[in-house]
Amino acid sequence: MIKNIVLLLLTCSALTIQGQNKPSKKAPYKNASLTIDERVNDLLPRMTIEEKVGQLLSPLGWKMYEKTGDKVQVSEHFRADIAKRHIGMLWGFLRADPWTKKTLKTGLNPSLAAKATNALQKYAKEETRLGIPIFLAEESMHGHMGIGATVFPTAIGQASTWDVDLLEEMAKATAKELRAQGAHIGYGPILDLAREPRWSRVEETFGEDPYLVSKMGKAVIKGFQGEGISNPDRVLSTLKHFAAYGVSEGGHNGAAVHMGERELFQSYLFPFKEAIATGALSVMTAYSSIDGIPSTSHKYLLQDVLKDKWGFKGYVVSDLGSIEGLLGDHKIVSSNAEAAALSLNSGVDVDLGSNAFQLSIEEVKKGNVSTKRIDEAVARVLRLKFEMGLFDTPYVDENQANEIVRSTEHKRLARKVAQKSIVLLKNEAQLLPLSKNLKTIAVIGPNAHNTYNQLGDYTAPQDPEHIITVLEGIQNKLPNAKVNYVKGTAVRDTTQTDINAAVAAAKDAEVAVVVLGGSSARDFKTEYLETGAATVAKTKKEEIIGDMESGEGYDRATLDLMGKQNELLQAVVATGTPTVVVFIKGRPLLINWPMENAKAVLDAWYPGEQGGNAIADVLFGDYNPAGRLPVSIPRSVGQLPVYYNNWNPARRDYVEETAKPLLPFGYGLSYTQFKYSNLEIAVSQEEELAIKCTLTLQNTGEVAGEEVVQVYVKDLKASTVQPMLNLRGFKRVALEPGEVRQLTLWLSQEDLAVYTSTMDFVVEAGAFKVMVGGSSEDIRLEQDFEIVNSIKVE
């Protein structure tokens, strides 16, 4: 008996030493010649439960460095977190904005960013027992949210390009800037559907249609990850937000979502399924619940569907504080420890914020979370760190960051994306393009010369010299003209109004360009929740109201232009001076009056740092606009929701107005015209069903231009209720004047399949209609075809 006790004590002592001693330099997990699985399998047993849980923590990163002049080092906060919690990941280490209190002065420029991340990795490699590198995740939805980074148009503008190759190029540039500074994970793309314009985060989405969202999302994933994250210019892509986040009740950010399983899978999960098939390596949960189950504890979606059925190999990360939200918001648990156990057991692998999963150590000891589940989550994270090569080469070249970040090539790309994103909504009597021989032009409005209002949410402070406003873009085009700028009014505040000055400027001009809209520009007066979302705070009478009316946390009850913007525009139009309206904004607004009364209207969304140049390029004809709306523009809030592919039956008109939107999905004008002809459909069912659509497109105008050819499909009879029509193909085509081109677009069996009453995904035998045109309501050609035999799609 005594002998057995001694052996047991010796065994326990050996295991303790194995778990706590520093491994030798020849430990197998440090051997780059071994396979990733071999290295993971060697490292995991060496880790204590505290070290394992540490790999699942992702605390706020901007607290983890100290900057003094041109020097930067890891902070005491970081040293303490490494020592006590063994953290394995940071979020927003390079982030700067009013919430983080990091400014152009206190934050990190690209060169210092590279030094800071190297210092971080050096400490993790040399001052910890196992030397596990740190993963650094950064917000990257329209460029890196870091000082000095290239700022591209926000996602709603990106989607307006309808150009997947361009988005892949943009994402590739963003990834390159991230890696040059030492970051590894890009948060994006957002795959939520924007069918609720009152919701504050429409600007972050690719619009209302599952097919368009999926194509744009896949392009970003390919740009971020390329052929593999072992490439030192690539980053992991984190999909947001799983799932159905953008259609919360009443447009309230994070509120409950109500929908059936069929609509969830057919519409809202479709872009995510396509993204996982493309190889996305990280998925973020949503704050909302679906039919009573919070997304952060939705085991059926996270485990059964995402991991088991779809074969997702990456890791699931909670949105910031959403695990604690199971207690504080959703009220489905009695403690944060219970929330940690529930989310872990439901399939969440990483805790963004890091406060909840710290409690899981005790939950493992209590038996509420299995060691196997912890090991599985840790292995998902470690596997990607090995795959990225961080155990072997965790450092970046500090001398390259300034050359790569916001390079001349990337600035040109930002201008190109902005040009392609601009949508021409109206052009009465061909007022546009404007003549470059104008002698006087009035530039008016709250967004005409406001740097941050044109950048959108999730943007770091930037050097004003890097941002070209609309006023500056017009001045660049007309260096010899008299350009009179009058702000006229603010976006929201009514005390900053001088409409008389705007009227005087318009009367003295040959043309007035009025730049209106909204803003997601955060400021240091704004209050923030712990999640980083802005709060709509009450303002004292004597205080100036900030411009922010969009961006995370700023949900709207109406969609009217705020403040005195309408009054400003009405006064300018009343002068009789030809008026062009340019909208810079993050969500669809009610623009009925401008569309009826202004001579020309452009929508530029948030066009990014080169927005002013791009808008001027369009205004003066150096670029022929071809952007198309990725969302429908409503006539009133009473119509909501309004999107083109609502399910049968067709919507009836209201007593007060039509049920149709003011402007439909896919809409956009050009400075030229296009003719569609000769549509032919050929059905092939040799190995797999394929439908070939060919047509002829001609530029019948006098200038070169681009048309976005859109292919829609209508299922004429299905066993379950289906949308009125579905976008199933598109192509942006550039043609010279008079040029004719034959186009071919293909439809796959997935494009025709529906979820049956038993939730099987099936192409049902029967009749279908292909419709081709310039928008969801501008169908130029159509043709029916037949599927003879039903096909179950795996």
TrEMBL record:
Name used for this protein in its record: Beta-glucosidase
Domain Fibronectin type III-like, first and last residues per copy: 707-776
One MF annotation (Gene Ontology) recorded for this entry: beta-glucosidase activity
Keyword check for Hydrolase: yes
Pfam short name (any one): Glyco_hydro_3_C
Highest taxon of source: Bacteria
A biological process from GO: glucan catabolic process
Family, per entry: Belongs to the glycosyl hydrolase 3 family.
Organism expressing this protein natively: Croceivirga radicis
Keyword Hydrolase found: yes
UniProt entry keywords in alphabetical sequence: Hydrolase
InterPro entries: Cellulose_Degrad_GH3, Fn3-like, GH, Glyco_hydro_3_C, Glyco_hydro_3_C_sf, Glyco_hydro_3_N, Glyco_hydro_3_N_sf, Ig-like_fold
